[in-house]
Design goal:
The protein has helices at residues 2-22, 30-43, 272-275, and strands at 48-52, 62-69, 72-75, 82-95, 106-116, 125-135, 144-145, 148-149, 157-173, 176-189, 206-221, 245-260, 276-284, 292-301, 314-323, 328-330. By secondary structure, it is mainly beta. The longest helix is centred in the first third of the chain and has 21 residues, at 2-22. The chain is globular, with a radius of gyration of 24 Å. It comes from Pedobacter zeae.
Length: 343
Amino acid sequence: MKKFALITLIIFICNGTKAQDQDPIKSDTTRYLNLKYIGFYRQNHPLSYIAPLGELGSKNKYIFSSRLSTSFMILGTKGSRLAAALIPDFTIRMLDLNSKPVYTPDFRIGGAFYYRLNNDENNYKYATLGFMHHSNGQDNTPRQVVGTLNYKDWDFSTNYIYGRYNWGRVKSNGNILKSSLNQQVEFKSNGLFGYDNVIKGDYGFTRIGYSVSYRTYSYFYDLLTKDEKENNKRVPNKEDDRKGWLNKERFRWNLETTYAINKYDSYNFFAVKRRLNIEATAYYSPFWMRQTSLMLGTGYYGEDPYNIYFKDKYAWVRFGIAVGFLKYTAKARGKSYESQELN
């Protein structure tokens, strides 16, 4: 009898938990906001790209350059404001030489903690604390080459920590996204530990940064899921809550800038040409490209972020294809449009 009562109690608890999990998550609940903010963490992560000819304007000629960056969310639950991710961020530039070498790939790998700071999904705020290891994959002894550095097999390695504050404003009509303005300030320091002494006094160990991103979205009926093509001709409204209606990021414009504030041996604090990095990039995603977009960017490196190439400074242009966590959301099942993206 006791065993039967225990089994009955376990079944009752499991059914109750299941029923609770199936309850709609309302937009004014903590559970909803914790999950919603994970979308902001991922969408504000840098996009991956491949760029034919690489950075036009560099002193080197490239076949292509490519950045592969993502975030593996290892903690992100409806029960906690805190989230965490492992972050690999790899860049390669293939030189236009006989053997098409890469020489020194750029490897960054680390992790980050995110913390939701407020309760408003339309005016979000969160903070990030992260750590990254930065290396070029070489193990040769650091050494100088006449007047410059050995770009071929010089051992570059350092570590850095960073803190960020992100905030943004999202304009929408119910579940129909219109646009968003997303901003970030950053403090980064990699002069605390684990770096090669040969770069001391000649490298931007401490940087402050600011970035802003403006994005627009489209809301349309996905013709690949149903045959009701005539429905795509009408204007959508917030009462639409059927599988097949999509929020898609259509356009993104990014401006990023950083400035090295540590001491250099040969440059004062106002040596803008050496300390400043700035870039502006536009992304356009046709409806048929889903998470992918066309990319066109331009900028200036006072300090090339590509590991051992840090002494190079030049203006550049880059074009290609980018991919990442663009906003692309199929409608969730259920009657409430507020449950969108959470199933």
